[in-house]
């Protein structure tokens, strides 16, 4: 069934939460998420506090009624009394604040005159204090998309929650290594026109965040929440998008769920739902409201100074520059910039003038993946590539030898460069003649296979093909 989102009065906005790659927000503990055995364990019960309005938030009450006990795992060398809520927060992480100010400027937003942290009631156990500290940094921004501007309502700086280890009926276990990691929250206005447009907006904001080169990468370091409604009915928030590729389908399925409820004259509830693996959604809790917020009295007010904030170059601009300056194809240029290896690639391409930049880019991006696929071994190509390229740049080894040496490195072997030193044309001809003599009447491909096996890494592949064709 093809949906007409304009006719449905589809309203949609997204919230993106991205971990920053700095130390924690209110202490000097490292932002290292751990899974090993903790040496500190504490038990707590949490209660809900009334917000500024004097009311207790509905979502908080929902959690309190479960009467759960919470067990917190911590580490004496990477967590401290701030995470345990036994010590007041320290001053705000200046680097994290600077990154958020950069993002605000890149999103064309208006930065607030005073930054005041608030406490957001959270009693599901994910924070030892029973609240999350969050501050509005900027508002009224926008991004340009293929379907017009999408306004940015708010940009906030907040602390990440603890990591769930295990849930049970009467108790939950959390690990505190994640608690307090700086988190930037970007929330759009309901300007998104359809599911594919939602994906585009999320990708654009994600690209801007990565352009700072100061955000964490990998599964779980960025989360997208989608708020939507149709026909002026209640708003639903969907959490837990793991893959942007599935975002349009999940949104479409949720809209269809709303339509079925409306057809049956059933109530559409204002609630938070979870995105499931089968692309459906399921109920999590009631929608929180303004009653969950109240002022944070332990963190000093900040007057932001943007006079020295430098706006980084966008990944998309870097990619276009790589294409032009180094004659790379678009896909490879995009992969270089997205992998945060742009500066390293430029350094290598400018240093080794006798090697085509396209070859250097391909080795940097694809050789590690190929080694893992073929041999099941992990390797950090950047750690080893310079010495290998030196040999190639001087004409001592062939291009094929670069991959072979990396394989040896991945297997934990000490690379023997002497066995990859290029041999002379006369030596190549001699070996090829011996192969032809021993395999009289054999087809060209069979001869080529034997030649490559014998000469791999010792001669250029194209040269071997050309010489064999002439000799045959």
Keywords:
472 residues, alpha+beta, Arc Repressor Mutant, subunit A, 4-stranded mixed beta sheet, 13 helices, 15 strands, 21% strand, elongated
Could you please describe the fold and organization of this structure?
By secondary structure, this protein is of the alpha+beta class. It has helices at 58-64, 94-106, 195-210, 247-263, 315-326, 330-338, 342-351, 357-375, 381-393, 399-410, 425-438, 444-455, 461-471; strands spanning 11-19, 40-44, 69-74, 110-111, 117-121, 131-145, 148-159, 163-167, 171-175, 182-188, 222-229, 236-241, 271-275, 281-286, 293-295. The strands form 2 sheets. Strands 1, 4, 5, 6, 7, 10, 11, 12, 13, 14 and 15 form an 11-stranded mixed sheet that branches. Helix 11 (425-438) crosses helix 13. The chain is elongated, with a radius of gyration of 28 Å. The model has no long low-confidence stretch (mean pLDDT 92).
Summary?
The protein is α+β, with helices and mostly antiparallel strands. 35% of the residues lie in helices and 21% in strands.
Number of helices: 13
Q: Outline, from the CA principal axes?
A: elongated
What is the radius of gyration?
Answer: 28 Å
Strand element count: 15
Largest sheet: 11 strands, mixed
Question: What pattern of helices and strands is seen along the backbone?
Answer: EEHEHEEEEEEEHEEHEEEHHHHHHHHH
Q: Low-confidence parts, pLDDT < 50 over ≥5 residues? A: none
- On the 0 to 100 scale, the average pLDDT is 92
Gap between N and C termini: 62 Å
The structural domain count equals 3
Q: What percent of the residues sit in helical stretches (DSSP H or I)?
A: 25-40%
Structural class: alpha+beta
- Which strand-content bin applies to the residues? 15-25%
């Amino acid at each position: 069934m093809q949906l007409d989102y304009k006719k449905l009065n589809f309203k949609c906005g997204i919230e993106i939460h991205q971990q920053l790659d700095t130390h924690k927000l209110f202490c000097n503990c490292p932002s290292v998420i751990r899974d090993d055995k903790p040496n500190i364990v504490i038990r707590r019960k949490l209660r809900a506090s009334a917000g500024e309005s004097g009311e207790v938030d509905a979502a908080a009450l929902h959690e309190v009624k479960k009467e759960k006990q919470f067990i917190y795992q911590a580490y004496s060398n990477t967590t401290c009394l701030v995470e345990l809520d036994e010590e007041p927060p320290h001053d705000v992480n200046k680097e994290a604040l600077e990154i958020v100010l950069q993002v605000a400027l890149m999103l064309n937003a208006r930065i607030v005159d005073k930054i005041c942290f608030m406490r957001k009631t959270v009693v599901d156990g994910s924070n030892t204090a029973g609240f999350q500290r969050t501050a509005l940094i900027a508002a009224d921004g926008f991004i340009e998309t293929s379907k017009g501007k999408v306004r940015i309502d708010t940009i906030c700086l907040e602390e990440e929650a603890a990591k769930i280890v295990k849930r049970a009926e009467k108790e939950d276990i959390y690990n505190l290594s994640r608690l307090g990691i700086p988190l930037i929250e970007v929330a759009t206005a309901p300007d998104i026109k359809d599911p594919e447009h939602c994906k585009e907006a999320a990708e654009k904001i994600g690209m801007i965040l990565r352009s700072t080169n100061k955000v964490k990468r990998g599964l779980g370091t960025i989360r997208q929440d989608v708020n939507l409604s149709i026909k002026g009915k209640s708003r639903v928030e969907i959490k837990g998008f793991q893959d942007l590729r599935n975002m349009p389908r999940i949104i479409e399925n949720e809209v269809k769920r709303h339509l079925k409820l409306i057809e049956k004259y059933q109530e559409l509830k204002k609630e938070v739902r979870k995105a499931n693996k089968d692309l459906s959604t399921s109920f999590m809790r009631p929608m929180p409201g303004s009653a969950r917020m109240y002022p944070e009295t332990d963190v000093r007010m900040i007057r932001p100074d943007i006079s020295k904030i430098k706006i980084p170059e966008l990944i998309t601009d870097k990619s276009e520059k790589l294409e032009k300056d180094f004659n790379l194809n678009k896909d490879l240029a995009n992969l270089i910039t997205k992998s945060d290896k742009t500066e390293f690639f430029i350094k290598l391409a400018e240093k080794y003038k006798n090697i085509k930049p396209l070859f250097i880019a391909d080795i940097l991006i694809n050789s590690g993946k190929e080694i893992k696929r073929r041999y099941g071994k992990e390797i950090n190509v950047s750690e080893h590539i310079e010495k290998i390229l030196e040999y190639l740049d001087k004409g001592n080894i062939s291009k094929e030898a670069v991959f072979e040496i990396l394989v040896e490195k991945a297997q934990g072997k000490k690379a023997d460069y002497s066995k990859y030193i290029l041999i002379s044309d006369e030596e190549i001809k001699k070996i090829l003649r011996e192969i032809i003599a021993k395999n009289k009447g054999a087809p060209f491909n069979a001869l080529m296979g034997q030649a490559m096996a014998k000469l791999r890494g010792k001669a250029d592949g194209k040269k071997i093909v050309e010489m064999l064709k002439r000799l045959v």
